[in-house]
Amino acid sequence: MNKFRINRKREHLILACQGSRCSFTTLYDDILLPHDSLTTINPDETDLSAAICGIEVKSPLYINAITGGALVSESVNRQLAMLAKEFSLPMAVGSQFAGISNPQLKFTYQVVRKYNPQGVIMANLPATATLKQARAAVEMVEAQILQLYLNPAQEFIMPEGDRVAKRLLANVAEICRTVSVPVLVKEVGFGIGASQAASLAQAGV
Q: How far apart are CA 112 and CA 75, in angstroms?
């Protein structure tokens, strides 16, 4: 992996720590929960357990992919792994292309499994990854789930970004058929439309 890409990963962390220069909302402010003074719900009897890709977890929350592939990423992933272990949260590592391209950077991802040996860990690669890369990513962190991400808008904007792969859906389907763990697909920042979600489901996601 070239130095430009490694520096880009470092910049992601720096910008996140500085805070966004833009104003965004999660839309949670638009949600109003009416108070029920006659509730029959007992908090002690409330079950928040859920399942992700058929794996039982204690809550419907997980730590999504954040970083990996830069030296500073090791510290961030170590602390996230410790939090994931303490609160029994599944965790996804950042894109593992750096660790696959440069074995000397694998430790920035493997630290997650080291500090959370029994936790649910998700490997992470772009949906354009090859089958060999997908297998390597799963093996690198002993993942129970493989997360593939779609980010065409982001790639178009970045000068060094990749362009559209014509066989993208077919590639996802091949990975789903072949890897040893369940596969989920996410989109970075813009969401997945209903028709795309249906196509991904038919592909085995």
A: 10
Domain chopping of the chain, boundaries: 48-202
For residue 87, give the 3-state DSSP assignment: coil
Q: How far apart are CA 68 and CA 91, in angstroms?
A: 13
Q: How far apart, in whole angstroms, are the C-alpha atoms of residue 72 and residue 75?
A: 6
Count the Cβ atoms, other than its own, within 10 Å of residue 75.
Answer: 13
Residue identified by tokens 């109003």 is 32
Q: For the full predicted model, state whether its pTM sits above 0.90.
A: no
The single-letter code of the amino acid at 5 is R
Distance, CA of 41 to CA of 48 (rounded, Å) = 13
pLDDT tens by residue, 49-86: 999 999 999 999 999 999 999 888 999 999 999 999 99
Does domain 48-202 fall under CATH 3.20.20.70? My reply is yes
Interacting residues of 16 by C-beta distance below 8 A, sequence separation 6+: none
Does residue 146 contact residue 81 with C-beta atoms inside 8 Å?
Answer: no
